[in-house]
Amino acid sequence: MCRILLAEDNDNLREVMTDYLEDNGFQVTAVPDGAEAWDAFCEQDFRLVLLDVMMPRMNGFEVCRRIRAKEDVPILFLTARAQEEDQLRGYALGADEYIVKPFSLPVLVAKCKAILERAGGRAMTDAVITAPGLSVNTLTGKVTADGEEIELPALDLKLLRYFMANQGRILTREQILDRIWGMDYDGSDRVVDTHIKKLRKALGKQGSHIETVIKEGYRFVP
User: Fold this and answer.
1) Domain boundaries, the chain
2) Starting from the edge strand earliest in sequence, which strands make up the sheet with 170-171, in order?
3) Contacts of 162 (CB under 8 A, 6+ apart)
4) Torsion angles phi and psi, residue 125, rounded to 5
5) What is the spatial distance between Cα 41 and Cα 55, in angstroms, rounded to a whole number?
6) N or C: which end of the chain has fewer CB within 10 A?
């Protein structure tokens, strides 16, 4: 099931959109403002982000800017602002599409599917990253190690996906922090070591894929 982040400050519209998207096969995390959207994005793994432009605490443009500094997940803006300059600003920040309110729910679903297809055929199909003895379904979050399914917290799942998408490449702590915790994180980089230790333990003997490269960082060795 494809996971969507929906940020919309209108309670009624957010509820209607959530119900309709879920009826059409999507798994939706719905939040009422930009700050909660950013927090949810940092904590979970999404295949598509729907952003209202005008939201309290943090507007959609700022959320888009932060997401683009971290990932290339598709972004669709929901807006009552049809001015050309607003749309150009959104595209300049990395948005994939706009839909102007009021809009048809069937058209919204069609746009979501089309965006996901353009992003690599990920709309409603599985995308699995594999290594010997290990697989991760990037849509459902299902992790299998030695043929057994294991449960990982959202952050550790994102960490594993990042490693498996960059097999054989040395990743520094700074790169991992920026990608997984976000560029605004200002804590200790040792949080990386702590989560990698937890991830290795959760993966059992397949945790040996994650190799420490002294004075440089970590590398996923297939």
Assistant:
1) 2-118, 128-220
2) 170-171, 217-220, 210-213
3) 171, 176, 179, 180
4) -115, 160
5) 16
6) C
